[in-house]
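Record minuted for everyone:
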Amino acid sequence: MSEINNQPVWLPPPFPTDGRTYLSNQQVVDNTRLLNAEEREYHQQLCIAAGRRVMPPCCKSVHISLFFDGTNNNEKRNTEIDTPPHPSNIARLYHASYRGEEAETAGYHSYYMPGVGTPFPEIGERDFSDEGLMYATGGEARINWALIRIVNAFSRELTKGKVNDDYAQSLIFDQLILPVGLHGSARRKAVFDGLFANLRRKVKYHQPKLLKVKLFIYGFSRGAAEARTFMNWLTDIFDTPEQAGEVQGPSLLGLPVCIEFVGLLDTVASVGIAHVAPQMDGHMGWADNTQALPDATRWPGLLKRCYHFVSAHEQRLCFPLDSVRRTNGTYPPGTVEVIYPGVHSDVGGGYSPGDQGKARQGEQLLSQITLHDMYSLAFNAGAPLTYPEQDVVNKFEHHHHYKIFSPLSKSEFYISQDVIQRFNAWRFTLNIAPEAETAAGEGYVPLTSSAPLEAVVEAQTAWLTAWRIGRYANGSYARQPFYQAAKAWSYDEDPQRYDENVRARQERQRKIELRRLNGEHQLPGEPIFDPAMNCRQLAEAAQEFAEDYRSGALTVGLARKSHSIAQLWLDDVAGKAVYVINVDDEAAEYQRIKTQATSLLNRLFADDTGRKVDDNEMARVCALFDEQIHDSRAWFMHSTLGAREMWSGYFRYRMIYSGDRANKAMTLFDIGKQGLNLVTGLFLFNLTANDHATAAQEKAVPVGNTSPVRRVNNVSESIIQAVREAIIRRSRKLLRDTLSGLPVPLASDRGNRQGSCCIIPVQGESGADTQIQTALTSPVRDVMWLRDEGARVLEIKWQQRKALVWKMMNEESGRAEV
């Protein structure tokens, strides 16, 4: 799958039957010693300087924990309002952190940033937003808010005050957020120097003496991408050598700074337009060149430990993974990337118990595994996290209430024995050598695999596809407990109930707006309506998979039944143009996944009826797919499109970025402007041997001066209906003959084969002669080079346009047009 020589990924160790929150006496002692390490060291220095044992000094370090949640995850909403509660793992870890007045007095500060697309009143976002969900709008403001939390923590320590929320919001939007294309390092430094000015004068003589700033950073999904950007932007506000004084290395206010622990869950940037659109990589705006972990050669000692848990089974094009590997394929010092079963939110958390009929009790969620494992790693690294009250803990002399699990945290860490057994059985699919298993020992010690991340993901995709063959292609899913349970989450399939729930949501939002007018300005809004249609979504997903499975490498996706006008247009019509300009090798991926999955089918199922094999471990693996692992594609975009993610499918590998490189090649194209005519023409050309396609071709959209977006929105129902009839009547053999071994023909027999598509209606009159594409580069995996080349091409085009306008301005005939 990848030709890059990458360092092997890590594998998770066996999960203990009693979970990872029941700590030994030594673990609690070690955590406490790490939390107080600087105080002991400073005391020792004073003793050495005095030549005798002196009284412990009044001093402490400042501990700052930052929690960046994932897209559409909102701790307050998911914990306090939603029924049943379903906070993400980031929110659960936040609940388990040291919080409250007593903790802040002791030097522990904990801050939570809601996921993009959800309310964050402190930065002026009161409502859920499609822009945040789709494009990660609001991510930059959240990162800047987190940076200002550092100032807030210092203010709490040095003045007992805090940064006013309105003032922080004005700083973010008036001074810190810059226009697209501009980099704000100098601006950021200037703004924070101003914020630190008064605090800098106080820190030197403050009591208790401040010794160090210790950061603990957590993030999931786009929140993980925000966390990575945060670390890079943090380096912009470090002290200059003059400001640092005698401190060697990174510092703030003359205090040494260290990122003690970073816990990331399945990083997805997808800022701007994600990889679902051809030639796009989702690293626009604040994610542009900010996802690499801080360079240890430039900032030695800044980052101590980083753990990145990644999904083994996510496949959506909108969710490409950003590995923590460097561009050269190696991992930074102290960095470990571990692969876990499940899709994106099976790793990061956030699924409701019972969603898609799976994990019908909260303790059955697969994400409880990663929650426990990340908690264990952070606690053992000295993170200020609470722990269950136990007899051994009560023996400690210095016992503080803020260090003990709250009832909420206790309930949020419950985990089922079924999940543990099935997870441990899944590890057999990793082919771990017995000697490596023995070497893992007790506790959380990840195992080094013999293969890079891409290869392990490829193997795991085959296992999940084998399960889908047994359940989806053979139809046995409908008889399984998870599908029967999903009926409880399918009430919006009733049109009357759907309309009632839409109106109810609108009424709740209306009341919120009225309360805001009456003074409750920060009141969060209602979530965007997401209808409960689990059974329909799963059934349509199973049908799509079965259709693709019975297709061929060159015709995959062409025989799908369309369930909505949007799906018909985006997948069946526009999808042909996307196939032309997308250099993902869909045919090769399809063939590889199908072949590998077929070879594993009898490892999971005894026959075509979906009966599990007698092997206990493999039966548990099958049960994990049945009862724990969700189908992220079945749900995604369904409420918006009435279908699944366009231009993709179940026979695709996930896009993985490592620094400036990717596991799939991309190229730069110059695309013609007449997008609507292009995609219609390409689709209709695929059906020229079909009489019904000819009828649709007669009704081709005429070339006009309106924008492509306007024309897409104004497509007539008659064209859609004509194309729909053509889809229904075509045969796979006819398509295979028409394609003649090519993914999509670039021109008709009567058109130009040098990159144009000539749409010829029945009357013989040319409807449009549209430039399809001009390849500007060869396929490459160097994403940064491709971006730079794209910027260079755009600059050349801009200069050409300016020259053309200038020429027209100097010609009398052209002035009116200008």
Notes: The radius of gyration is 29 Å. Residues 453-508+529-657 form one domain. The longest strand covers residues 209-220.
